[in-house]
Amino acid sequence: MNNVKKRVLSGMRPTGKLHLGHYIGVLENWKKLQQDNECFFFVADWHALTTDYNDPSKIREYTEDMVIDWLASGIDPEKCTMFVQSDILEHAELHLLLSMIIPIPWLERVPSYKETQESLSERDLTTYGFLGYPLLQSADILIYGADTVPVGIDQVPHIELTREVARRFNFLYGENTLVEPQSMLTATPKLPGIDGRKMSKSFDNCIFISDNPETVEKKVMQMVTDPHRIKKSDCGDPELSTVYAYHKIFTPGEKVAEIAEGCRTASIGCVQCKKILIQNLLSAFSGFRARRTELEKNRSFVNDIINEGKGKASAEARKMMERVRRTMKLK
Protein backbone atom coordinates (compact mmCIF):
# COMPACT_ATOMS: atom_id res chain seq x y z
CA MET A 1 0.00 0.00 0.00
CA ASN A 2 1.33 3.43 -0.98
CA ASN A 3 1.31 5.68 2.08
CA VAL A 4 3.31 8.52 0.53
CA LYS A 5 1.62 11.82 1.35
CA LYS A 6 0.66 14.14 -1.47
CA ARG A 7 2.35 17.52 -1.50
CA VAL A 8 -0.21 20.34 -1.42
CA LEU A 9 0.50 24.03 -1.96
CA SER A 10 -1.79 26.99 -1.41
CA GLY A 11 -1.40 30.68 -0.65
CA MET A 12 -3.31 33.83 0.23
CA ARG A 13 -2.59 37.46 -0.59
CA PRO A 14 -2.14 39.80 2.41
CA THR A 15 -4.45 42.60 1.33
CA GLY A 16 -6.14 43.22 4.67
CA LYS A 17 -8.20 41.44 7.30
CA LEU A 18 -9.57 37.97 6.57
CA HIS A 19 -13.35 37.70 6.46
CA LEU A 20 -15.75 34.81 7.03
CA GLY A 21 -15.63 33.93 3.34
CA HIS A 22 -11.89 33.30 3.67
CA TYR A 23 -12.52 31.17 6.73
CA ILE A 24 -15.10 28.82 5.27
CA GLY A 25 -13.68 28.90 1.73
CA VAL A 26 -9.98 28.42 2.47
CA LEU A 27 -8.99 27.90 6.10
CA GLU A 28 -11.56 25.18 6.83
CA ASN A 29 -10.22 23.29 3.82
CA TRP A 30 -6.60 23.80 4.87
CA LYS A 31 -7.36 22.36 8.30
CA LYS A 32 -8.62 19.17 6.66
CA LEU A 33 -5.78 18.94 4.15
CA GLN A 34 -3.03 19.29 6.77
CA GLN A 35 -4.17 16.09 8.46
CA ASP A 36 -3.17 13.69 5.68
CA ASN A 37 -0.96 15.65 3.28
CA GLU A 38 2.39 17.41 3.18
CA CYS A 39 1.12 20.99 3.06
CA PHE A 40 2.91 24.22 2.18
CA PHE A 41 0.81 27.31 2.98
CA PHE A 42 2.29 30.68 2.14
CA VAL A 43 1.57 34.39 2.39
CA ALA A 44 1.64 35.61 -1.21
CA ASP A 45 3.01 39.07 -0.47
CA TRP A 46 4.58 39.57 -3.91
CA HIS A 47 1.20 38.81 -5.45
CA ALA A 48 -0.33 41.61 -3.39
CA LEU A 49 1.89 44.01 -5.33
CA THR A 50 0.27 43.11 -8.65
CA THR A 51 -2.80 45.19 -7.81
CA ASP A 52 -1.61 47.25 -4.82
CA TYR A 53 1.87 48.26 -6.00
CA ASN A 54 1.17 51.95 -5.38
CA ASP A 55 1.16 51.56 -1.59
CA PRO A 56 2.96 48.48 -0.23
CA SER A 57 3.43 50.01 3.23
CA LYS A 58 0.81 47.79 4.90
CA ILE A 59 1.85 44.46 3.41
CA ARG A 60 4.21 43.52 6.25
CA GLU A 61 1.57 44.30 8.88
CA TYR A 62 -1.09 42.40 6.94
CA THR A 63 1.29 39.45 6.59
CA GLU A 64 1.79 39.03 10.31
CA ASP A 65 -1.92 39.51 11.03
CA MET A 66 -2.78 36.90 8.41
CA VAL A 67 -0.51 34.31 10.00
CA ILE A 68 -2.09 35.07 13.38
CA ASP A 69 -5.51 34.41 11.84
CA TRP A 70 -4.23 31.13 10.36
CA LEU A 71 -2.88 29.94 13.69
CA ALA A 72 -5.97 31.00 15.61
CA SER A 73 -8.12 29.17 13.04
CA GLY A 74 -6.32 25.89 13.64
CA ILE A 75 -3.62 25.83 10.96
CA ASP A 76 -0.95 23.82 12.77
CA PRO A 77 2.77 24.50 12.15
CA GLU A 78 3.47 20.98 13.39
CA LYS A 79 1.40 19.59 10.50
CA CYS A 80 2.28 22.02 7.70
CA THR A 81 4.89 24.51 6.55
CA MET A 82 3.84 28.18 6.78
CA PHE A 83 6.04 30.79 5.17
CA VAL A 84 6.16 34.15 3.41
CA GLN A 85 6.68 34.14 -0.35
CA SER A 86 9.22 36.98 -0.46
CA ASP A 87 11.41 35.18 2.11
CA ILE A 88 12.15 32.52 -0.52
CA LEU A 89 14.04 34.27 -3.32
CA GLU A 90 14.01 31.12 -5.44
CA HIS A 91 10.39 31.93 -6.32
CA ALA A 92 11.64 35.01 -8.17
CA GLU A 93 14.50 33.14 -9.82
CA LEU A 94 12.25 30.41 -11.19
CA HIS A 95 9.71 33.00 -12.30
CA LEU A 96 12.46 34.80 -14.23
CA LEU A 97 13.67 31.64 -15.96
CA LEU A 98 10.14 30.56 -16.86
CA SER A 99 9.40 34.03 -18.25
CA MET A 100 12.04 33.35 -20.90
CA ILE A 101 10.10 30.43 -22.35
CA ILE A 102 6.42 31.32 -21.96
CA PRO A 103 4.62 32.78 -25.00
CA ILE A 104 2.86 36.05 -24.18
CA PRO A 105 -0.50 34.85 -25.62
CA TRP A 106 -0.56 32.13 -22.94
CA LEU A 107 -0.70 34.88 -20.30
CA GLU A 108 -3.16 37.09 -22.17
CA ARG A 109 -5.69 34.27 -22.51
CA VAL A 110 -5.95 33.64 -18.74
CA PRO A 111 -9.61 34.58 -18.03
CA SER A 112 -8.88 36.56 -14.88
CA TYR A 113 -6.50 38.89 -16.76
CA LYS A 114 -9.23 40.92 -18.45
CA GLU A 115 -11.84 40.24 -15.77
CA THR A 116 -9.70 41.78 -13.03
CA GLN A 117 -8.77 44.74 -15.21
CA GLU A 118 -12.47 45.43 -15.72
CA SER A 119 -13.43 44.98 -12.06
CA LEU A 120 -10.54 47.22 -10.92
CA SER A 121 -10.83 49.73 -13.74
CA GLU A 122 -9.87 52.58 -11.40
CA ARG A 123 -6.35 51.13 -11.11
CA ASP A 124 -3.65 51.03 -13.77
CA LEU A 125 -3.06 47.32 -14.28
CA THR A 126 -1.23 47.66 -17.59
CA THR A 127 1.96 46.42 -15.96
CA TYR A 128 4.21 43.46 -16.69
CA GLY A 129 3.77 42.32 -13.11
CA PHE A 130 0.01 42.03 -13.52
CA LEU A 131 0.27 40.30 -16.89
CA GLY A 132 2.85 37.91 -15.49
CA TYR A 133 1.28 37.14 -12.11
CA PRO A 134 -0.16 33.78 -13.31
CA LEU A 135 3.39 32.76 -14.20
CA LEU A 136 4.58 33.78 -10.74
CA GLN A 137 1.80 31.54 -9.42
CA SER A 138 3.20 28.76 -11.57
CA ALA A 139 6.66 29.33 -10.11
CA ASP A 140 5.17 29.23 -6.58
CA ILE A 141 3.72 25.80 -7.33
CA LEU A 142 6.53 24.28 -9.39
CA ILE A 143 9.31 25.31 -7.00
CA TYR A 144 7.95 22.81 -4.45
CA GLY A 145 7.01 20.06 -6.87
CA ALA A 146 3.42 20.27 -5.62
CA ASP A 147 1.20 17.34 -6.59
CA THR A 148 -2.07 19.16 -6.01
CA VAL A 149 -3.33 22.70 -5.57
CA PRO A 150 -6.72 23.35 -3.92
CA VAL A 151 -8.65 25.86 -6.02
CA GLY A 152 -12.12 27.08 -6.79
CA ILE A 153 -13.47 26.54 -10.29
CA ASP A 154 -12.41 30.04 -11.36
CA GLN A 155 -8.75 29.24 -10.63
CA VAL A 156 -8.58 26.04 -12.70
CA PRO A 157 -7.19 27.91 -15.78
CA HIS A 158 -4.23 29.02 -13.63
CA ILE A 159 -3.38 25.42 -12.77
CA GLU A 160 -3.76 24.38 -16.40
CA LEU A 161 -1.31 27.15 -17.34
CA THR A 162 1.11 25.79 -14.75
CA ARG A 163 0.81 22.30 -16.27
CA GLU A 164 1.49 23.72 -19.75
CA VAL A 165 4.52 25.63 -18.50
CA ALA A 166 5.92 22.49 -16.84
CA ARG A 167 5.39 20.46 -20.04
CA ARG A 168 7.06 23.14 -22.16
CA PHE A 169 10.04 23.36 -19.81
CA ASN A 170 10.48 19.58 -19.68
CA PHE A 171 10.15 19.29 -23.47
CA LEU A 172 12.61 22.10 -24.21
CA TYR A 173 15.32 20.80 -21.89
CA GLY A 174 14.75 17.08 -22.29
CA GLU A 175 14.16 16.09 -18.66
CA ASN A 176 11.08 15.65 -16.48
CA THR A 177 12.29 18.19 -13.95
CA LEU A 178 9.06 20.02 -13.17
CA VAL A 179 6.02 18.22 -11.77
CA GLU A 180 2.66 18.85 -13.45
CA PRO A 181 0.25 19.63 -10.59
CA GLN A 182 -3.38 18.59 -10.43
CA SER A 183 -6.24 20.91 -9.51
CA MET A 184 -8.02 19.93 -6.30
CA LEU A 185 -11.47 21.40 -6.72
CA THR A 186 -12.89 22.63 -3.43
CA ALA A 187 -16.57 23.19 -2.82
CA THR A 188 -16.90 26.67 -1.36
CA PRO A 189 -20.20 27.53 0.36
CA LYS A 190 -21.58 30.79 -0.97
CA LEU A 191 -21.44 33.41 1.77
CA PRO A 192 -22.65 36.85 0.69
CA GLY A 193 -21.72 40.13 2.30
CA ILE A 194 -24.11 41.71 4.78
CA ASP A 195 -25.77 43.65 1.93
CA GLY A 196 -26.41 40.51 -0.13
CA ARG A 197 -23.69 41.21 -2.69
CA LYS A 198 -20.46 39.26 -3.01
CA MET A 199 -18.45 39.61 0.20
CA SER A 200 -15.66 42.04 -0.61
CA LYS A 201 -13.60 44.60 1.26
CA SER A 202 -14.16 47.00 -1.63
CA PHE A 203 -17.93 46.83 -0.93
CA ASP A 204 -17.40 47.35 2.82
CA ASN A 205 -19.80 44.48 3.49
CA CYS A 206 -17.58 41.95 5.28
CA ILE A 207 -17.70 40.33 8.67
CA PHE A 208 -14.06 39.81 9.57
CA ILE A 209 -13.04 36.80 11.61
CA SER A 210 -11.14 39.14 13.93
CA ASP A 211 -14.19 41.38 14.57
CA ASN A 212 -15.09 41.73 18.25
CA PRO A 213 -18.55 40.61 19.48
CA GLU A 214 -19.97 44.14 19.45
CA THR A 215 -18.95 44.63 15.82
CA VAL A 216 -20.34 41.24 14.80
CA GLU A 217 -23.67 42.09 16.43
CA LYS A 218 -23.83 45.47 14.71
CA LYS A 219 -23.08 44.00 11.28
CA VAL A 220 -25.55 41.13 11.59
CA MET A 221 -28.30 43.55 12.58
CA GLN A 222 -27.58 45.42 9.31
CA MET A 223 -28.01 42.30 7.16
CA VAL A 224 -30.62 42.34 4.43
CA THR A 225 -33.58 39.97 4.74
CA ASP A 226 -36.45 39.03 2.44
CA PRO A 227 -37.42 42.43 0.92
CA HIS A 228 -41.04 41.29 0.58
CA ARG A 229 -41.40 40.75 4.31
CA ILE A 230 -42.38 44.20 5.53
CA LYS A 231 -44.14 43.33 8.79
CA LYS A 232 -43.37 40.56 11.25
CA SER A 233 -46.72 38.98 10.40
CA ASP A 234 -45.76 38.69 6.71
CA CYS A 235 -44.69 35.24 5.57
CA GLY A 236 -41.24 35.23 4.04
CA ASP A 237 -38.92 33.24 1.81
CA PRO A 238 -35.72 32.32 3.71
CA GLU A 239 -33.82 31.78 0.47
CA LEU A 240 -34.12 35.52 -0.22
CA SER A 241 -32.53 36.39 3.11
CA THR A 242 -28.81 36.94 3.61
CA VAL A 243 -29.30 36.00 7.25
CA TYR A 244 -30.53 32.53 6.27
CA ALA A 245 -27.44 32.01 4.06
CA TYR A 246 -25.35 32.42 7.23
CA HIS A 247 -27.66 30.18 9.26
CA LYS A 248 -27.07 27.35 6.78
CA ILE A 249 -23.35 27.49 7.58
CA PHE A 250 -23.09 28.55 11.21
CA THR A 251 -26.31 27.24 12.79
CA PRO A 252 -26.62 23.58 13.88
CA GLY A 253 -28.38 21.56 11.18
CA GLU A 254 -31.50 20.64 13.11
CA LYS A 255 -32.16 24.32 13.89
CA VAL A 256 -31.81 25.52 10.29
CA ALA A 257 -35.05 23.84 9.20
CA GLU A 258 -36.86 25.37 12.17
CA ILE A 259 -35.65 28.85 11.22
CA ALA A 260 -36.68 28.37 7.60
CA GLU A 261 -40.16 27.20 8.63
CA GLY A 262 -40.44 30.08 11.09
CA CYS A 263 -39.70 32.53 8.27
CA ARG A 264 -42.23 30.93 5.91
CA THR A 265 -44.99 30.89 8.53
CA ALA A 266 -44.10 34.24 10.15
CA SER A 267 -43.71 32.54 13.52
CA ILE A 268 -40.27 34.11 13.83
CA GLY A 269 -39.39 37.72 13.06
CA CYS A 270 -36.30 38.99 11.24
CA VAL A 271 -34.87 40.61 14.39
CA GLN A 272 -35.21 37.36 16.34
CA CYS A 273 -33.68 35.47 13.43
CA LYS A 274 -30.68 37.82 13.47
CA LYS A 275 -30.24 37.51 17.23
CA ILE A 276 -30.11 33.71 16.94
CA LEU A 277 -27.44 34.06 14.25
CA ILE A 278 -25.43 36.46 16.39
CA GLN A 279 -25.29 33.94 19.23
CA ASN A 280 -24.29 31.13 16.88
CA LEU A 281 -21.56 33.21 15.24
CA LEU A 282 -20.14 34.31 18.58
CA SER A 283 -20.22 30.73 19.81
CA ALA A 284 -18.56 29.37 16.67
CA PHE A 285 -15.66 31.83 16.95
CA SER A 286 -15.26 32.06 20.73
CA GLY A 287 -12.26 29.72 20.66
CA PHE A 288 -10.77 31.59 17.72
CA ARG A 289 -11.05 34.94 19.52
CA ALA A 290 -9.38 33.56 22.65
CA ARG A 291 -6.51 32.05 20.66
CA ARG A 292 -6.08 35.21 18.59
CA THR A 293 -5.90 37.39 21.69
CA GLU A 294 -3.09 35.22 23.09
CA LEU A 295 -1.19 35.23 19.79
CA GLU A 296 -1.40 39.02 19.53
CA LYS A 297 0.31 39.20 22.91
CA ASN A 298 3.09 36.91 21.71
CA ARG A 299 4.08 38.12 18.26
CA SER A 300 7.62 36.86 18.76
CA PHE A 301 6.17 33.33 18.79
CA VAL A 302 4.36 34.10 15.51
CA ASN A 303 7.57 35.36 13.93
CA ASP A 304 9.40 32.25 15.15
CA ILE A 305 6.87 30.11 13.29
CA ILE A 306 7.32 32.21 10.13
CA ASN A 307 11.10 31.84 10.39
CA GLU A 308 10.85 28.10 10.97
CA GLY A 309 8.64 27.80 7.90
CA LYS A 310 11.12 29.89 5.95
CA GLY A 311 13.86 27.38 6.74
CA LYS A 312 11.80 24.38 5.62
CA ALA A 313 10.49 26.04 2.46
CA SER A 314 13.90 27.43 1.56
CA ALA A 315 15.51 23.99 1.75
CA GLU A 316 12.92 22.56 -0.66
CA ALA A 317 13.14 25.53 -3.03
CA ARG A 318 16.94 25.36 -3.17
CA LYS A 319 16.83 21.68 -4.13
CA MET A 320 14.43 22.35 -6.99
CA MET A 321 16.41 25.32 -8.28
CA GLU A 322 19.58 23.24 -8.33
CA ARG A 323 17.74 20.70 -10.50
CA VAL A 324 16.38 23.46 -12.77
CA ARG A 325 19.83 25.01 -13.26
CA ARG A 326 21.39 21.62 -14.04
CA THR A 327 18.61 20.80 -16.48
CA MET A 328 19.11 24.13 -18.28
CA LYS A 329 22.90 23.63 -18.25
CA LEU A 330 23.28 26.83 -16.28
CA LYS A 331 25.39 25.10 -13.67
Layout of secondary structure:
Blueprint: E1 7-12, H1 20-36, E2 38-43, H2 45-52, H3 59-73, E3 80-84, H4 90-99, H5 104-108, H6 111-119, H7 128-131, H8 133-142, E4 148-151, H9 156-173, E5 182-185, H10 213-221, H11 242-250, H12 253-265, H13 270-284, H14 286-297, H15 299-327
Parallel strand pairs: 1-2, 2-3, 4-5
Helix pairs in contact: 3-14, 4-8, 4-15, 8-9, 10-13, 11-13
Question: Could you explain the architecture of this structure?
Answer:
The chain is mainly alpha-helical and 331 residues long. The protein has helices spanning 20-36, 45-52, 59-73, 90-99, 104-108, 111-119, 128-131, 133-142, 156-173, 213-221, 242-250, 253-265, 270-284, 286-297, 299-327; strands at residues 7-12, 38-43, 80-84, 148-151, 182-185. The strands form two sheets. The chain has a three-stranded parallel sheet with strand order 1-2-3. A two-stranded parallel sheet has the order 4-5.
